[in-house]
Every structure is written in structure tokens, then in C-alpha cells.
Design brief:
The protein is an alpha/beta fold. It contains twelve helices and twelve strands.
């Protein structure tokens, strides 16, 4: 079967190539009945427009890149869903890059994306970054960038975050009100902005209830499930806490596994709360008390900020911070 290109489609319709092209770009200057006539003929002849070539002519990829630390965390999966929904509305595609909390991967991805593969970037920062001046060093060449969740304070870019201090304060306060006095705070990287903010909320909640802060109860975990299992088991045995506050989702699950191995009963021997957007949290045994972030909405808001820049509604230099609220869902893992 002869392949139909835009020239042959235009000839079949007795229209110019530019008119046919405008129909596929959804230009407002083409009459609705003409557009429908073109699209109907295209379906009849099995014609597919070459959007890639069109994008090259416009010097746009019509693609945005999403850089996240991990995909195993349900929070990031939901955030990506929110981003993709907004991207689709703007007729853009998405590319997903996973850093595994590896700083060098993040640097490599950012530099790779400056070859024209994407028109903008939505990023949750890597957990191991020590020096991120490379973003500023890109200068005028830097693609429009929007942060979500994890940010770099010294990089000027719009960002969508949650009220991490308040959320952490409320999570710790909840454990205290349920009778806990020795609360372990599990963190992957306390030096990252989000880690510092959540730790401050934890400390201030202890201070409010006149519970002395104990540095030993801050347990540094890793990105490895195997390492976390050992770290948390040792912490539960050595520190003997009566409550655990997991600052990221996977540490709450690792605590459940550790309790099972050590024959500790949740919530009788240990109460557990964690940041999590996992929809099956109520189905765990016992059901997990969570501080839940509006992950899908965070992704959607971040995407909208980026498209405001791409479509010229806001300057790249505009610093805008959107703060959304998380919600505490009390369940059996912290019951009295």
C-alpha cells in the first residue's frame, strides 16, 4: 500500500499543505468544518502526521522531563500521574528519569536534557547532592526548571512543596498524645532541605511536651532495603523506643519487617507513623497511621507552573512557591 504523506493528503483534498498542517496543529484560524473534513480524510487514508518533524521546525520537543529519586515510593508514582495529566492537556509527552538518589546521575540527566530532548524539567532533588551550583552554571542555557517535594534552597526556581514542618510536628505530637516518650525519628538524609525541615518539626514537638531531645534517637538510614532492615532492627533493640516516626514511606515498611523479626507487636510494643501516600496503608496489619501528602495535586501544580513559563505567562526568573497541606490519617498502628 502506498504511504500517504501530507503532500498527497493535501492533493486528495484539493487544499494547500499549510492548511492541512494547521488542522493538525489545531490552529484557531482554520474553520471547524474544514478541519473536520481534513481529519476525516486522514482517517480514511490512514495518514498519521509527523509530529516529530513539526516539532523540529518549531524548535520544540513538546516533551517535558521528570527527574525523581525513586519509583518504588508510591508518592512519586502519584506525582508523576498528576504531571502527566497536565502535560497531556497541553499536548506534551513526558520522559521519566530516576536518580536512585545518586547525585552524579542527576547531573548527567540535567546535562543530557540540554541537547533538546525536553523543553522543561520538573525535578525532585537527589538525596546525595553536595554541590548543585552546576544548575546555576548553565546560565541562560538552563531549561525552565520547577522543583517539587525535595528542593535546593540555593537554586532559584519555582517549587511546589508541602507543609513539611507542620506535618512532622503533628506526626510527632500524635505519637506523644498516644503515650509515646521515646520516639525514634528515621531519616534517609537529614542534610537535605526536606530532612532538615521535618527534623525541626520533630524536635519542636518534643520541646512543646517537655520531652528531652536525644540525638541517639535520630536514626540515619540508607537507600538500601537490606541495609535498612539491619539498621532499624539494631535501633529497636539498642534504643528500645516506644514510637517510630518514619520520615519516608519505605522506612515505615522496614519498621514493620523489623518488628516481625523481633516479635515486637504494633501498636502494643511500638507505635508507628510515617509519611506515605500508599493507598493500601489501611489494609496493612495493623493499618498504618500516615501523614499523607496530596501527591497527585503536587505533580499537577508543578506541571502547571512549568507550562506557565513555557507558554510565556511567567518569566523563567519568577520564583513562585506553592505550599500544599498534608493530612494525618490515624489508624491502628498508633492506637492506644
Amino acid at each position: 500500500m502506498e504511504r500517504i504523506n501530507i503532500k498527497k493528503l493535501a492533493e486528495a483534498l484539493n487544499l494547500s499543505k499549510s492548511t492541512v498542517s494547521r488542522a493538525f496543529r489545531d490552529n484557531s484560524d482554520i474553520k471547524p468544518d474544514t478541519k473536520e473534513k481534513i481529519l476525516a480524510k486522514a482517517r480514511e487514508l490512514n495518514y498519521e502526521p509527523n509530529h516529530y518533524a513539526s516539532n523540529l521546525r518549531e524548535q520544540k520537543s513538546r516533551t517535558i522531563a521528570i527527574i525523581v529519586p525513586e519509583l518504588a515510593n508510591n508518592y512519586f508514582s502519584q506525582a508523576i500521574h498528576g504531571i502527566e495529566r497536565i502535560a497531556r492537556q497541553h499536548q506534551y509527552h513526558i520522559l521519566i528519569y530516576v536518580t536512585d538518589d545518586d547525585y552524579q546521575k542527576e547531573v548527567d540527566f540535567i546535562r543530557h536534557l540540554h541537547n533538546g530532548r525536553a523543553d522543561g524539567i520538573i525535578m525532585s532533588a537527589s538525596g546525595e547532592a553536595d554541590d548543585h551550583a552546576y544548575l546555576n552554571n548553565l546560565g541562560a542555557k538552563r531549561l525552565p526548571l520547577v522543583f517539587f517535594d525535595r528542593i535546593y534552597d540555593d537554586i532559584e526556581a519555582p517549587r511546589v512543596i508541602t507543609n513539611d514542618y507542620d506535618s512532622s510536628f503533628k506526626a510527632t505530637e500524635h505519637l506523644i498524645q498516644q503515650g509515646c516518650k521515646r520516639i525514634c525519628y528515621l531519616v534517609v538524609n537529614k542534610n537535605l532541605s526536606i530532612g532538615k525541615t521535618r527534623m525541626r518539626g520533630y524536635q519542636d514537638a518534643l520541646a512543646k511536651y517537655e520531652i528531652p531531645f536525644n540525638e541517639k534517637l535520630i536514626v540515619d538510614c540508607s537507600n538500601s532495603y537490606e541495609e535498612n532492615a539491619l539498621i532499624i532492627k539494631n535501633a529497636l533493640q539498642d534504643l528500645k523506643p516506644d514510637g517510630v516516626f518514619a520520615s519516608v514511606e519505605r522506612l515505615a515498611f522496614a519498621t514493620y519487617y523489623a518488628c516481625f523479626d523481633l516479635n515486637l507487636r504494633i501498636p502494643d510494643d511500638l507505635k508507628v507513623i510515617g509519611f506515605s501516600s500508599l493507598e493500601i496503608a489501611p489494609l496493612l496489619n495493623p493499618s498504618l497511621t500516615t501523614m499523607t501528602q496530596p501527591a497527585t495535586e503536587i505533580g499537577a501544580q508543578a506541571a502547571q507552573l512549568l507550562f506557565n513559563i513555557l507558554e510565556g505567562q511567567e518569566s523563567v526568573e519568577t520564583i513562585q512557591e506553592v505550599v500544599l497541606k498534608s493530612k494525618l490519617y490515624g489508624r491502628k498502628s498508633t492506637a492506644k
